[in-house]
Design goal:
CATH architecture of the largest domain: Alpha-Beta Barrel
Helix content: 40-55%
CATH class of the largest domain: Alpha Beta
Strand content: 5-15%
Structural class: alpha/beta
Order of helices and strands: EEEHEHEHHEHEHEHEHHHEHHHH
Shape: globular
Strand order of the largest sheet: 3-4-5-6-7-8-9-10
CATH topology of the largest domain: TIM Barrel
Number of domains: 2
Length: about 350
């Protein structure tokens, strides 16, 4: 397994990490299987796991906590925790206005963090991030100011948290905050996939300038049909739709399918190897909901990065024209309907 330095944290993290969202009961995964998935990943060199208060209604943190108890020694994984999305955590039963107000109340923010630490059975957190800074934290992107970030900075001073950061689907928002120098690491969802690499426009340069660790997730658009499995027949409605962005989406996928066939790779294998080709991306957290997923992800990583000529071909496909992102299509509830 390739390891990379996670920016100024100094952590040596596995270039293939594990996302903690999908191995919960929310996706039908049984606790014993979740434990086995993590144990297998650790045995094969994965040492970086991402979790959050929201994931599985808190179950992800419990799964991670069990793993830390089983792996307390040299193979202990580095955990990236996230605070936020209070509607899915321990504040969920409060009135909506109180949940909204919690993002501006240090005591309430700390209440949820202490609960997360109790569930994970830790006295300190390796890394703690604001979950999706573009949503309810009311962050000033130019200064980084928000009640949440101030809380994280204070916990870092106290030694409760070793390093702090922020996650987002918005590369530009993360780039602006990274440029303030107040973050140790960022986690960007959807910043790179086989369809686009927009995180390299502003985010990666900002992180390099301030030695900020870079983690990516949602490279498959959170299981976007067409990015997970090749399905040329399903592309026909896209090509026939009266929408140039949908047409381009299908055109790009057709070209990607051709390359994957040429390389004898699945779409998942190709994206793992593609992202592994960028040394400025320190860890790629892949969601797993079954043992075969983590086995295949590790197999893909062990194949190594794609040759540069194939990386350039994927980049050229991405640059063919403007198309919807998987997240945009999912948000419009169009993708799954059209991809049947």
């Amino acid at each position: 397994m390739i390891n990379r330095r996670l920016g100024r944290t100094g952590y040596e993290v596995s270039a293939l990490g594990m996302g903690g969202f999908q191995f919960t009961g929310q996706f039908g995964v049984k606790p014993a299987e979740a434990d086995a998935i993590i144990d297998y990943g650790i045995s094969k060199g994965i040492n970086f796991i991402d979790t959050a208060q929201l994931y599985g209604g808190g179950e992800s943190e419990a799964i991670v906590g069990r793993a830390l108890q089983r792996h307390p020694g040299a193979d202990k994984p580095i955990i990236c925790a996230k605070v936020g999305h209070f509607q899915g955590g321990i504040l969920r039963d409060l009135p909506a206005e109180k949940i909204a107000a919690a993002y501006f109340d240090p005591e309430e923010i700390i209440r949820t963090i202490k609960h997360s630490m109790w569930v994970m059975r830790v006295d300190t957190l390796d890394m703690l991030m604001l979950h999706e800074i573009e949503r309810t934290w009311n962050t000033n992107y130019e200064t980084g100011d928000s009640v949440g970030l101030t809380v994280l900075e204070e916990l870092k001073k106290q030694g409760v948290v070793k390093y702090i950061g922020a996650s987002s689907w918005d590369c530009d928002a993360l780039a602006s905050v990274a440029n303030t120098g107040r973050l140790d690491a960022v986690l960007v969802a959807g910043g790179i996939s086989l369809l686009s690499r927009w995180m390299f426009d502003r985010l990666v340069p900002a992180c390099k300038a301030h030695d900020v660790g870079v983690i990516v997730g949602a490279s498959l658009g959170q299981n976007t049909p067409g990015l997970v499995f090749k399905n040329r027949e399903a592309l026909k409605p896209f090509l026939e739709a009266d929408d140039p962005k949908l047409n381009m989406f299908a055109t790009k996928l057709n070209c990607l399918y051709d390359l994957a066939d040429e390389l004898d790779l699945s779409m998942v294998q190709m994206v793992v190897r593609y992202i592994l080709s960028f040394e400025d991306i320190h860890s790629h957290t892949m969601g797993v909901r079954a043992m075969e997923h983590v086995i295949d992800n590790i197999k893909s990583a062990e194949m190594g990065p794609l040759e540069d000529k194939y990386v350039q071909r994927i980049n050229s496909i991405q640059d063919m024209g403007e198309s919807y992102t998987p997240k945009q299509l999912a948000d419009m509830q169009r993708l799954n309907k059209l991809f049947k």
